[in-house]
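Quick start: read one record
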Amino acid sequence: QVQLVESGGGSVQAGGSLTLSCAASGYTYSSYYMGWFRQAPGKEREGVAFIDSDGSTNYADSVKGRFTISKDNAKNALYLKMNSLKPEDTAMYYCAADRLRYGLAPLYMYWGQGTQVTVSS
C-alpha cells in the first residue's frame, strides 16, 4: 500500500525558509513520478513543483527561483526547499505520487495528508 507522509511545515516570517520532506513507502519509489502541491483555503489545489524520472524539474511560475524540488531514491524521500517565502505561499502542502506522468496537474493517485505552511508578513 502506497503511503506518503509529509513533514517540515510550520510558521515563518516573510523572507524565511522551510524545507518540506515526504517519506514514501509501499512501492518501488524510483518508478513513480512525484510532485508537490498546495491548497490555500477557498482555492483549488495547485501544482508547485515536479521532478521527472531523469531528474529534470518543473515549477509553477509563482515559485520559480525560490523553491527547489529534489529527491533521494536511496531514502525514498522527496524534498521541497522553500526560500524567500511570501504570505501568499501560505497553504497546506501535499506530496503526490503516480506511475503516470501528470507533471503539475493534480491528477495523481496517491497523496499524503499534508503539512501546513504559514507565512506572516
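The longest strand covers residues 18-25.
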